[in-house]
Structure formats: C-alpha cells, structure tokens
Amino acid sequence: MCVQWSDLLICKTRALSISQQGMINMHANVGLLFETSLVAILCYVWFWNRALGTRQIAFPHFAVPSFSFFCVIMAYDELRKIFLRKGMEKSRRGRTKYVGWVVRNTYY
Asked: Contact at 8 Å (CB) between 13 and 21?
C-alpha cells in the first residue's frame, strides 16, 4: 500500500517536486484515504478476518518494510527530478527545452 502511495505521488508531475506541485487533486487524495481505510478494515476488523480466513498483522510488520520502500522510491524520484530541472532551459517564446544528458538530441 505504501508503494502505491509513492507511485501516485511521483506520477503527479514529470519535472516538479511534490512540494512544488502540492496535493490539490482531491480525487487522488480521496483515493489514497479510501485505499488506506480499505486495507486497514480488511486487516484489522475481526469479521473480515474470519470471513476471509486471515489473521491480524502486527502493525510494525505491516508498516515498517513497506515504508522503507516508500522512502527509497520518493528519494530516487526527487533526485531524478532535480537533475531533470537542471537540464531545462526556457526559450524566448516561453517553451521549455531539455538539454544535456537528460534528453538525447536526435534530429530526423
């Protein structure tokens, strides 16, 4: 679940950081809250545990491994976006041009 959170957050923009973009998409925010509550209900409500034949997971076993992957994915993507922004130039017409190692210049 935490990895899905990070995937949604890094897919919001191509070049902006999550702090620059913000969390203004309310549909995505509701989706994140719904997913989190659904997983919590399926894992920790005794009725669903009995109906599905599962048992409750200790919270540290549920959150700690997946949160470490969340941190690694977010850190990698934020570093990638920093390098991407360093390779961008604005032209006089206001268009963004990617230069440097970020984009390979091929002209046909």
From this structure: yes
The answer to whether the Cα torsion of 102, 82, 10, 59 is positive or negative is positive
Q: How much is the pLDDT for 108?
A: 44
CA distances in angstroms from 1 to 86, 89, 98, 101, 102, listed in the order given? 32, 37, 34, 34, 31
Q: Which amino acid is at 1?
A: M
Average pLDDT over residues 72-96: 79
Residues in Cβ contact with 51 at an 8 Å cutoff, skipping those fewer than 6 apart:
none
- Among 100, 107, 66, smallest CA distance to 86 is for 100
Question: In this model, does residue 103 exceed pLDDT 70?
Answer: no
d(CA 4, CA 36): 10
What amino acid is encoded at 29 in this protein? N
33: which residues sit within 8 A by CB, 6+ positions away?
A: none
Residue type (1 letter), 2: C
